[in-house]
Amino acid sequence: DHCLTANREPLMRIILALIAVPVIEIALFIELGGLIGTWPTVGMIILTAIIGGVLLRAQGFSALRKMQAAMAEGGDPRGPMAHGAMILVAGLLMLTPGFFTDTIGFLLLTPPVRSAVIAWAGPRLAARVVSSAQAQRGGGGGPFQQADAGPIDADYVDLTDGPRRPGGSGWSQNPENQS
After folding, report:
1. Are 91 and 100 in contact (CB under 8 A)?
2. In the structure, what pLDDT confidence band is assigned to residue 179 with cuts at 50, 70 and 90?
3. 6-20, pLDDT tens digit by residue?
4. Is residue 43 over pLDDT 60?
5. Count of CB atoms within 10 A of residue 95's CB?
6. What is the spatial distance between Cα 118 and Cα 90, in angstroms, rounded to a whole number?
7. Could you give the count of Cα atoms lying within 13 Å of 104 in the half-sphere of its Cβ?
8. Of 40, 73, 125, 179, which residue is least crowded by CB atoms under 10 Å?
9. Which of 54, 36, 39 is nearest to 94 (CA)?
10. Which residues make Cβ contacts (< 8 Å) with residue 98, sequence separation at least 6?
11. Which residues does 160 contact at the CB level (< 8 Å), separation at least 6?
């Protein structure tokens, strides 16, 4: 019963957004159309879609290059991947006709806004993933508690029989010991 009520909150937020966003867009269309006319309003929607598409393409390729560079250097690609995901969300918002979604999409194309959203959403998303995994396993314990899977059969090679290199992690074989 607890799992059913816990899963309703995100669903309710999605349903609320699916109702609220079109209502906001319609209200903005009516207001702006009344101020500047129908065809200028339609022209602005088309213009923002074109500008958004150009920015999306440039920012998307930039994020892809940063992710590839991080991976090539052996670095952590999570930051560029998160920015790439946010750029994708921005693109989807900008493909949706409307001024409200275009504004949010344009904001997400600016790196400082993306960084702020990632910093805010990252810990919340991680907490949801951990709690969801715990609920699927049957609850209880911390995020590192293993389900009782019985004995684990594994093969290993002892790499400790040579002199250790200073600063070595112990996880890899020393280059001096390789034949």
Report:
1. no
2. very low
3. 567 878 988 999 999
4. yes
5. 14
6. 13
7. 16
8. 179
9. 54
10. 21, 24, 25, 28, 29, 45
11. 170
Convert the pLDDT of each residue in 114-147 to its tens digit. Answer: 999 988 887 777 666 656 555 666 655 555 555 5
DSSP state of 69: H
- The answer to whether residues 174 and 163 touch, using CB atoms and an 8 Å cutoff, is yes
How far apart are the C-alpha atoms of 6 and 133, rounded to whole Å? 13
- CA-nearest of 53, 122, 128, 129 to 87 is 53
Chain-centre distance of CA 143, in angstroms?
A: 21
> What angle separates helix 99-108 from helix 111-137, to the nearest 10 degrees?
90
Looking at residue 1, what is its pLDDT? 47
Q: Which two tokens stand for residue 32?
A: 């702006």
Letter for the amino acid at 38? T
Question: For residue 19, what are its two tokens?
Answer: 């109702």
pLDDT of res. 139: 52
- Round to whole Å and give the CA distance between 84 and 91: 10
CB-CB contact of 28 with 44 (8 Å): no
